[in-house]
Design goal:
By secondary structure, the chain is α+β, with helices and mostly antiparallel strands. The protein is built from two helices and eleven strands. An eight-stranded antiparallel beta barrel has the order 1-3-4-5-6-7-8-11.
Length: 243
């Protein structure tokens, strides 16, 4: 995966540096907020398994308050216009997680699995013909990138004045592919509103322990636990034409 990452970032550097020397028809910069849903079956099963084990060990009815729900993220995109084509850089980040807790007069116990995915990639779009004079423009394309996934697992036990916290950090590098349909609407001269709908498809890597990458996360049956951010993406934002 490190070899793939080096090739990918070399490609991005090549695209951005060579585009500076190309006579382009405009550069667009946009900032978007988006909503994402997630597949996460492996993580959900892992969290439920640990919840059930804790419930058996100390005989209390734990409550799962979140279970890797859909969440909002942020995205920055720099696109270079070349005829009917656009290409450039895309950076986006999104979080989700699961929490289990129990509290009574004797104290509190909680467990959390927190996930963050930060993706750096390339955007590639095509605009169908016949839209050059329209305020509303349609683009069809995809975002391809590498996603750095950070997983924080933490348990916290509070008994009267004593607090015991145990935490582990894991990380993975996933490959992300998001077919996308995008709409831009010109508000005023070089300012435009933008929206998109897409579906993210991820190839997930093992979650490796940050302190020792030879160790990775497994469930009780010895199966690899993965964080899969595949799912629907709906975005809305604003952008400017820089050139």
């Amino acid at each position: 995966m490190n070899f793939i990452a080096k090739i990918f970032f070399t490609f991005l550097t090549f695209v951005l540096t060579t585009s500076i020397n190309v006579r382009c028809q405009g550069i667009e910069l946009s900032a978007n907020t988006f909503y994402g849903t997630f597949e996460m079956s492996s993580m959900k099963n892992f969290h439920q398994e640990i919840t059930d084990d804790l419930s058996e060990q100390i005989n209390v009815p734990f409550s799962v308050t979140d279970n890797f729900p859909g969440h909002y993220g942020l995205e920055l995109q720099l696109l270079i216009n070349q005829g009917n084509f656009q290409y450039g850089l895309n950076i986006n980040s999104i979080t989700t997680g699961a929490n289990t807790s129990y509290s009574d007069f004797s104290g509190d116990i909680s467990m959390s699995n927190s996930l963050r995915s930060t993706t750096v990639g390339g955007s590639f779009y095509f605009a169908p013909d016949g839209q050059s004079n329209h305020k509303l423009k349609l683009y069809i394309g995809a975002v391809v990138g590498l996603s750095l996934v950070n997983h924080d697992f933490e348990t916290k036990l509070i008994l009267q004045s004593n607090t015991d916290i145990t935490s582990y950090e894991f990380k993975a590098m996933n490959i992300s592919f998001r077919p996308t349909i995008r709409l831009n609407y010109q508000i005023y001269k070089g300012i435009f509103a933008t929206s998109f709908v897409g579906y993210c498809i991820e190839i997930s890597d093992k979650l490796k322990l940050s302190e020792n990458e030879d160790l990775h996360l497994l469930n009780s049956e010895g199966d690899v636990v993965k964080a899969n951010f595949s799912g629907l993406r709906l975005g809305l934002g604003i952008g400017v034409q820089l050139k």
